[in-house]
Amino acid sequence: MTDFRFHHGGVSVPSLAEAIEWYDRVLGFKVEREFRIAAAKSRTAMLRKGPLRFEIFEVENADPLPADRSHPARDLATHGNKHIAFCVEDLDAFLLEMTERRADVAMVVREPFGTGCFIRDCAGNLIEFVEEDAT
């Protein structure tokens, strides 16, 4: 089988400028490049934090995010892509930092199968952070 690796996740937002500011202030992503995608009628930015990339689209006349898509448990009841997830070493330290950065914490999960949380970006898109088990 052909080998492949992860390149980026992507979200659609109502305001590219607001999203660029949010992803920088809250998560530390910096703009790698900005461009237009004519076929999608979008202004687009590729953001980067170390090896991680996140693509943000502001599309002309886009429909708003359906309310259920910004609630983790309800979002699972709709087929399709759900979210992107990142690892953190210490969930409690991460949650404290997100509180300090005024992030919208949607859900904290502490279950036998794992520990993590979901936050909402400035447009309501879900992003998961998991504390990886050291074992």
UniProtKB/TrEMBL annotation:
InterPro entries: Glyas_Bleomycin-R_OHBP_Dase (IPR029068), Glyas_Fos-R_dOase_dom (IPR004360), MMCE/EMCE_epimerase (IPR051785), VOC_core (IPR037523). Residues 5-132 form the VOC domain. Keywords: Metal-binding. The keyword Metal-binding applies. The keyword Metal-binding applies. SUPFAM superfamilies: Glyoxalase/Bleomycin resistance protein/Dihydroxybiphenyl dioxygenase. It comes from the Bacteria. It holds the Pfam family Glyoxalase. PANTHER family: BLR5325 PROTEIN, METHYLMALONYL-COA EPIMERASE. This is Bleomycin resistance protein. It comes from Blastomonas fulva.
